[in-house]
Amino acid sequence: KDERMKWWREARFGMFIHWGVYAVPAGTHNGQRINRIGEWIMNRGKIPVADYKAYAKQFNPVKYDPDAWVKLAKDAGMKYIVITAKHHDGFALFDSKVTTWDMVDATPYGKDLIKPLAEACRKHGIKLGLYYSHAQDWVNPGGAAARKKASEGWANPDSARIDAYTETHSGHWDPAQTTKTMEQYINDIAVPQVREILMQYGDIAVLWWDTPTGMTDEFAEKFQPLLALRPNMITNDRLKRPNFPGDFKTPEQRIPDLSELDGKDWETCMTMNGTWGYKSYDDKWKSPETMIRNLVDIASKGGNYLLNVGPKADGEFPAESIDRLKTVGTWMKSNGEA
Ligand code: JFZ
Questions:
Q1: Which pLDDT tens digit goes with each residue over 38-63?
Q2: How high is the ipTM of this complex?
Q3: Ligand 1: distance of its center to the CA of 58 in Å?
Q4: Which one in 51, 296, 302, 319 has a CA-CA gap of 20 to 30 Å to 191?
Q5: What is the Cα–Cα distance from 76 to 89, expressed in whole angstroms?
Q6: 144 dihedral zone (left: phi>0; alpha: psi -120 to 50; beta)
Q7: Which segments of the chain have a pLDDT < 50?
Q8: Distance between CA atoms of residues 167 and 163, nearest Å
Q9: Contacts of 96 (CB under 8 A, 6+ apart)
Q10: Is any ligand 1 atom within 6 A of the Cβ of residue 237?
Q11: Atom of ligand 1 nearest to the CA of 251
Q12: What is the pLDDT of residues 191-218, one digit of tens each?
């Protein structure tokens, strides 16, 4: 394990990227602003599967320049990138053969987004990790859905009825989500897709599981053999809870106190503003000073800082994120770190 963890323990600083179909509505559905994090818009807004799928027809990132993304990360002193290969909306940024709910089949762009990023990372000596939402999937039937109230998402006149429905349908809001069992979803979508992302792009440094909603020991076991496909790869601690440590812990949006440290490896993931996925009107930006202080605090305690960018649907990073990455990079260079 020490051998596998070596580069990561020295890395200290990485870039998280939350990108997907949710960048199209960017926080607004049918003229209504939906509360909270942008990549949850489908769940918080209780958007029907068919309506959400329609957003993919507008996902056409013609300005996508993975080389520029990787250079921004590298110049900021980051050593690795973790991108959402599939988030809870079930949409695959890669070319998946087991579903048409992917970049190649469902969008006008029609090309795998992960492949050129993997190439750019290799070219610039940056490690690539993939985030995969293995349990929650709100579009591929049988995927889990965390229970969140529509009434907290927006002023929906129908929210009382919807909340009653999700209560009795384990968080789902559209009958199309439950035409298969979770076991079928794990067998037919999640396991094959994890195999795809581990095999299609050469070396994958990190596999980043998320939100083990509905995960059983039995489901978790189905993913275990896949890890052997990438013997050097490391994973986080979110495959299943409890009793699945993974290689590192993932405190979210917070930096642990010294008293909480227990000798285990850890990585704090954090947003630059108030959302992971792009929201056009989120303006709760942290200052570059805050980001540098966070990085120094985390590094001094032996952790890693995974700082998030939520690209727009056209393929560009928000200008505010670019500015901050550049300022952090200038500081890193003046301190001999980049
Ligand atoms: C999850 C996702 O639901 C979210 O959209 C984002 O991708 C984030 C990085 O991860 O949200 C979580 C997961 C774990 C905790 C909180 C939010 N947690 O452990 O406190």
A1: 999 999 999 999 999 999 999 999 99
A2: 0.95
A3: 26
A4: 51
A5: 30
A6: beta
A7: none
A8: 6
A9: 102, 104, 193, 196
A10: no
A11: 19
A12: 999 999 999 999 999 999 999 999 999 9
Task: Quickly count: other Cβ atoms within 10 Å of residue 104's Cβ.
Answer: 17
170 neighbors 147 (Cβ within 8 angstroms): yes
Residue 241: predicted pLDDT: 86
pTM exceeding the 0.90 threshold for the entire prediction = yes
Going from the Cα of 270 to the center of ligand 1, the distance in angstroms, rounded, reads 10
What's the Rg (C-alpha) of the chain?
Answer: 19
Ligand 1 centroid to Cα of residue 210, in Å, is: 7
Q: Is the CB of 208 under 6 A from ligand 1?
A: no
Report pLDDT for 338. Answer: 58
| Residue position matching structure tokens 């590192």 | 248
Determine if ligand 1 sits within 6 Å of the CB of residue 254.
Answer: no
Q: Across-strand partners of 309?
A: 17
Residue nearest to atom 18 of ligand 1 (CA): 252
Residue 71 pLDDT: 98
Give the DSSP H/E element, type plus range, for residue 16: strand 13-17
CA distance 72 to 317: 10
Pairing of strands 80-86, 13-17: parallel
Enter the tokens of residue 91.
């949409």
Smallest CA-to-CA distance from 49 within 142, 149, 165, 176 is with 176
**Which residue, judged by its Cα, is nearest atom 12 of ligand 1?**
211
φ and ψ of 129, to 5 deg: -115, 155
